[in-house]
Amino acid sequence: MLVIGAGAAGSAAAFHLAAAGQRVTLLEKNEHQNIKPCGGGMAAAVQEWFPFDLKPVVDEVIERVEFSWRLSDQVVADLSGSAPFWIVRREKLDAHLASKAVDEGAELIRPFAVKSLLKQEGLWQATADDGRQIEARAVVIANGSHSQLSEVFGLGPKAVHHASTMSVRLDSRGNLEKGSARFEFGLVHHGFAWAFPIAGGVNVGVGTFIGRHAADSDAVLKQLLPSLGFDPQAGIRQEASLRVWNGHHLLHGDGIIAVGDAASLCDPFLAEGLRPALMSGCEAAHSLTRWLNGDTNNLADYSQNMRQRWGESMAWGRRIAQVFYRFPKVGYQLGIKRPTAPQRIAQILSGRMGYGDIAQRVIKRLLLQRS
Ligand SMILES: Cc1cc2nc3c(=O)[nH]c(=O)nc-3n(C[C@H](O)[C@H](O)[C@H](O)COP(=O)(O)OP(=O)(O)OC[C@H]3O[C@@H](n4cnc5c(N)ncnc54)[C@H](O)[C@@H]3O)c2cc1C
């Protein structure tokens, strides 16, 4: 069993496969765990998918989320109590999951940058850029937003949709209070900006979710960073494009499955990609284990389960994003500033509610306001 990519999705899949007794090789192109452009915001509810503690990689527990429109008109959602939201240090999360997979018997080979993947006489053969080869009966494609393998094997959408992001890691806290995260809507055309705490610092990001053009992140950061107590030029900047969910598609083939960003699972409204990465890694491992043990003759239950558990909500998330980011001022007034909104947002961020539960009401309100 091969897993290509030791990010969140691949490492989660490798752990569950190895724990189920499968022989797993996890291939990662980077020799060392590099800094990843990721805010690290994640519903604490993902803990229930793992039998080991995720707390060692949690930098902060978020109890308060502040929303603003052009740095004013603030709304605060209280996340304390039953709907906790964590900030994890992304590199630590990936390394933690991969090391748990290794503890269960998986082999981690890094660096191993897969250059090509072929199926020959019933076996998948992965070739690295330096010519090394490795074979297996089944393969998990988990190599992130820049994967070309998922398209080559017809997994996920043919028309891939990307969000454009710019992230900045700052190594002091500015004025962000302990346990608080911020979302800013009015400054970014067709998107939003965020500030999430990490131990000893802050991750700030700018994301554009519809349209072809990335936001003018420098202009946004010039206003946003001083409002957080930083110099407008502070921090190391990393640009990244992120595949987002774009319709229901098959995510499996004959002995092959795509997970995480490689399967275009990231939420097209709020860019939540960690929960679906971990969910798909776990689901993939369960389907593959049944298939490898001969309990089923195909992997269709993986695509079906992901559609049910994630895709149905994302279909509504995409519709909300298309309306909200076109009319963000109205969206902010009617979607975020409603008295019940903080509670709903807390439930969505914590994974207790899907977009389908709120979407019809929100879209109707937005469209009625425009007509
Ligand atoms: C700026 C930014 C902020 C974000 N903030 C959040 C957030 O706060 N919360 C949230 O839930 N989501 C967030 N996301 C989304 C989230 O980071 C992704 O959805 C998540 O990383 C998906 O995990 P993954 O394992 O599928 O992919 P990745 O984390 O990209 O892992 C893929 C792995 O595959 C390896 N790889 C690539 N090519 C090859 C190859 N050819 N051979 C071998 N290995 C290979 C890579 O090195 C990498 O380790 C953010 C994204 C961005 C860009």
List the helices and strands and how they pair.
Elements: E1 2-4, H1 8-19, E2 25-27, E3 41-43, E4 58-62, E5 64-69, E6 72-78, E7 85-88, H2 90-103, E8 107-109, E9 114-120, E10 123-128, E11 133-136, E12 139-141, H3 149-152, E13 161-170, E14 180-184, E15 191-198, E16 201-208, H4 217-227, E17 236-244, E18 252-253, E19 256-258, H5 274-292, H6 300-324, H7 328-336, H8 341-349, H9 356-370
Parallel strand pairs: 1-2, 1-12, 2-8, 5-14, 12-19
Antiparallel strand pairs: 3-7, 4-7, 5-6, 9-10, 10-11, 13-16, 13-17, 14-15, 15-16, 18-19
Helix pairs in contact: 1-2, 1-5, 5-6, 6-9, 7-9
The chain binds flavin-adenine dinucleotide.
Report on the structure:
This protein has a single domain (2-160, 244-370), classed as FAD/NAD(P)-binding domain (3-Layer(bba) Sandwich), CATH 3.50.50. It has helices at 8-19, 90-103, 149-152, 217-227, 274-292, 300-324, 328-336, 341-349, 356-370; strands at residues 2-4, 25-27, 41-43, 58-62, 64-69, 72-78, 85-88, 107-109, 114-120, 123-128, 133-136, 139-141, 161-170, 180-184, 191-198, 201-208, 236-244, 252-253, 256-258. The chain is an alpha/beta fold. Helices cover 32% and strands 27% of the residues. Flavin-adenine dinucleotide binds at residues 4-10, 27-30, 36-42, 113-114, 142-144, 165, 167, 205, 240, 242, 260-262, 266, 271-275, 277.
